[in-house]
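Worked Example 4.2. Consider the chain below.
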Amino acid sequence: MSAPTQAHAATPTPTGFELRTPQAWVDFPVADEASENRLGEEAREHALTGGFTADQAGRFAEQVRRSVRQARRSGAVHAAGVFEMYEDGPLTATVVVAVVTPPANGDILGALTAVGQPTRADGTWRRVTTAVIPEIGTVGRVYGIQNVVQDGATMRCAVMHTVVPMPGSADVVVVTGSSPNLAEAEEIFGLFGAITETLAFTWDDEQPALTARPESTDATATDA
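Applying the procedure from the previous section yields the following structure tokens:
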């Protein structure tokens, strides 16, 4: 009778992560409601300095508040964004990292956005594919032009969700990029993909924590 095989050690669950964004991007704390107002005011001042009109700065500040509020309520553990003024108009985009418990059927991509016909009558569309993150491997991805609901307001955006299995856990990490700059959608998707490719897990306490929040299990990012 052969000797019993030695059990393999359980895969440790990451305690944190690294995600690199371009230099112009700003980290958005998502800890509490006070951060929404603080970041909104900072965004307004930054927009005014960057050449936005008072009306543009006010609308952008409200967008930032909504983005941070939505991120916090959907279980985000990290958010970052950019707001810059160019000759042809403003560029605004956000990237949110959330830890999500998949639904019972395991279809996390379907839970994030109703995956149906490639193009809808209202002009929205989405594609389901895979991607490779160098430090992690092959992951699931859905991207397209979607109607994003933030705090009751709907905005059409270029959106990319990347779903990353978390080692040693049933939870997954979802990296979501969103931008209302539809005219530059292809470039925006490339930017979101490049940012997501920098994701790496850590096993120490020096990086942002990876902990699922109870309200994250049934939150959705888009209007189905």
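The CA atoms of residues 119 and 125 lie 4 Å apart. Strands lie at 16-18, 26-28, 76-86, 89-100, 125-133, 137-150, 153-165, 172-179, 200-202. Compare this with Example 4.1 before moving on.
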